[in-house]
Specification:
single chain; alpha+beta; five-stranded mixed sheet; four-stranded antiparallel sheet; 26 helices; 20 strands
Length: 685
Amino acid sequence: MTNRLAEAKSLYLRKHAENPIDWWPWCDEALATARAQNKPIFLSIGYSSCHWCTVMEGEAFSDIAIADYMNTNFLPIKVDREERPDLDSIYMQALQMISGQGGWPLNIFLSPEDLVPFYAGTYFPVDPRYGRPGFMQVLQALRRYYDTEKEDLQQRKALIIESLLTSAVLQDGTTTELEDRELLRQGWETSTGIITPSQAGNRFPMIPYTELALRGTRFNFESGYDGKQICTQRGLDLALGGIYDHVGGGFYRYTVDPTWTVPHFEKMLYDNGQIVEYLASLWSAGVQEPAFERAIAGTIQWLKREMTAPEGYFYAAQDADSFTDSTAVEPEEGTFYVWSYSELQQLLTSEELTELQQQFTVTPNGNFESSNVLQRRHLGQLSATLERSLSKLFTARYGVSSESLETFPPARNNQEAKTANWLGRIPSVTDTKMIVAWNSLMISGLARAAGVFQQPLYLELAAQAANFILKNQFVDGRFHRLNYQGEPTVLAQSEDYAFFIKALLDLQASNPEQKQWLEKAIAIQDEFNQFLWNIELGGYNNTSSDSSQDLIVKERSYADNATPSANGVAIANLVRLALLTDNLDYLDLAELGLKAFASVMHRAPQACPSLFTALDWYRNSTLIRSTTEQINSLIPKFLPTAVFAVTSDLPEKSVGLVCQGLKCLAPAESVEHLFQQVQQSQNRG
């Protein structure tokens, strides 16, 4: 017996289709039914590769007694946060207000008449444990509260909605001079401090922070931090650590320890795109560690092999868990990726195993549930023996050598994973939906790596994905966020517009002669401005003006999380477009956007590194006009606020023109003079 979610396109929603809970998707009919029946809404938000979402699905959401009580007393709604980041953002903020913490699954209780939350939590066990109440206790207490404490309920909701509205407006009278170098220094120092190695907690890539920290190293700010060393260390932690899959390529989402050793094994497209871009930029900034190039190449091989649809777009994610064999009832975390010592003894010669132990974290006892996660111990190039050993492990995992495996088909659900005839291990489930924002982050990473390493394949993959989006994600002239097996759905949100415009500009930057990318970026920016620009407050709303009727507040994304903030990226895009088109309307919008978020930049620089990246673009934007030959020589260099324009119409005896914002310097008469001007323009006082 299945519920309504059996017909959903979302893998995450379909995972709940056989629950005894009478789930609804988020829709007008569900909201109207809750109001008509006077049932509080139980809204549960998660995503397909979320481990604790999966745990709760198999426990509380599969419990018959809980389901009976839920179905009688609540209107249960399931939302995939990757489909509706706008809903997730609002209710995640409410969760943090109510409980003091965030995370997924996000389980929140709403009044049906106004959709305002009155209680929230994350994982609830069936029975009380881990210091958490049992889920049935929570449901019974909340239904009793909803029925009998109406006055307290209204007061509680009033406080929550007031806090949400205040947070959304962001106006506290603070102003700033956008040319203020000190503000930029404060943002850089804050982000650099955040990524400085410490001795506690999980380790996430945090690329928006690393990106700002790296671009700030060119200023030589007076600080207690050695920015270049800290940025290099973050690159080494990523490329050498257990967060990178040294056998199959690709980065996991985070490590559960401060030593970058044991990951949570899910692989997210958005992380991999950002990390590829960061490592390529670090290389271009002069930190040319061979491990960076190897990690980039391995990640792109994984992307091409396992995450690229035949149509050219990229899949969203791979789960952390997989089955040990086809008879297993539940998948286990990391099974596809880790190695027991006995396996390594069987697969490798004694010489190979000895060298592997010298260079990687391999022991008889292991470092993860008696198995080994591979983490490199040293910098530099891997030896031929080590590469041969890793190739043997690849063959053991996939059942065929890396040289002969061009495409590894995805397991789209647990049933496919358990029943397909895999030659090696049973792989993790892959969420095959196409998300514009996440594809865009990968396109940007590929474009940057293509420019730095002069690899045509990287550019080819990026262009294929961009062309898929351009050809398939517009319905009746409107941009759409998702694609399920050829069907576009859900109107694009601010991150989709901002990240895809950036991706198009990055493609154009890697090959400035291809004007079509710029032309498409301009057209999509026009739509972005029309439907999402907030005329009253400045900046971009998360959701378009004609599709936000079900939202209790209109938010503008300014805070960076695992991905950059939409407004930070969007404002930087506006500066780039102003340089490339000479249309100063873009620059006016960029200035209004920065002023709209000035208060949060002063008050909480730790929240918004991408806004400081946008401020860097605004202060230090540089246009380089030159020939194709000269521009191609500049593309691999670290020039974080430069755009290129190919021209043959240069003053006599000059090799290029450098423009700083709204003024141009004297024509450069030599390549050395041109590069000197470019560097000076990137670091204006």
